[in-house]
Amino acid sequence: MEIRCHLLDGEVAGLPGRAVVSAAARGVIDDLAWSLTGGFDSARHALRTPGGYVALAAIGPVQAFIISAFASTAVANASQAIGAIDGGAMLLVAGAVWLVQRRNNRR
């Protein structure tokens, strides 16, 4: 949808075909860079707090269940093994982040 907007803007401006495609490509690259930058900032902020790891702990077993329902046996077995470990590991990381934050707040 976004690339259509870039193409339409170029056509409305009366630009030749090459310029329209070039402007659309630059627009897409700019949009991609903007979304990646925002995504990295959000992820960095979320993983500074225990809440992000608690959410990841809940996602692991659910993802393993979904994959095991639709995948072949070998993939399903591997996914279930990772899902069984993932939730507990993320909760341990959340606890460690909480302890670090608690120590830093006491200083």
Concise synopsis of the structure shown:
By secondary structure, the protein is mainly alpha-helical. It has 4 helices and no strands.
> What is the overall number of helices?
4
Q: Domain count, please report it.
A: 2
The count of DSSP E runs of length 2 or more, i.e. the number of strands, is 0
Radius of gyration (Å): 22 Å
Which key phrases capture this entry?
107 residues; mainly alpha; 4 helices
Write the layout of secondary structure elements.
Blueprint: H1 2-12, H2 17-46, H3 50-70, H4 73-106
Helix pairs in contact: 1-2, 3-4
Explain this structure:
The chain is flat and about 60 Å long. The longest helix is centred in the last third of the chain and has 34 residues, at 73-106. It has helices at 2-12, 17-46, 50-70, 73-106. The model has no long low-confidence stretch (mean pLDDT 80). It is an all-alpha fold. It has 2 domains: 2-41; 47-106, no CATH class.
